[in-house]
Amino acid sequence: PEAIARVMTTFLGTVSFAHGERPAYVRLRALFVPSASLIRTSGSAPEVWTVNEFVRARQAVFDAGELFSFEETELSDTTELFGNIAHRFSRYAKRGATNREAIDTRGAISTQFIRTPEGWRISSMAWDDERPRRRAARTRG
How far apart, in whole angstroms, are the C-alpha atoms of residue 37 and residue 32? Predict the structure, then answer.
């Protein structure tokens, strides 16, 4: 439904910020149930955070001057709904700038929602970035 799309759009807008702006990570707490999990699976082992841990980690990277800008956009989505639960599978693109390199990748997010007295909230979010494809070495014969 439209309410779930609004929560997802608000999430992406909250983690996104232009160069020279300050991120509004603290606003993320209102989008999640208190015991929600955020899980990044693009490393060698999954990284699991509570909402407060995620907010602290992201704010620390920004405050240390390591992240200058970040934008994440939803490219496509499929939402399934049953009663008071929903799942949204989204393809995304993210871009940004750090003190080491540019961010420019795509990936997928699996987001679970539950309906609460305050409206739809995220109970779990797991994402994975696409891996660069390796090209086969050419040999001359």
Answer: 9
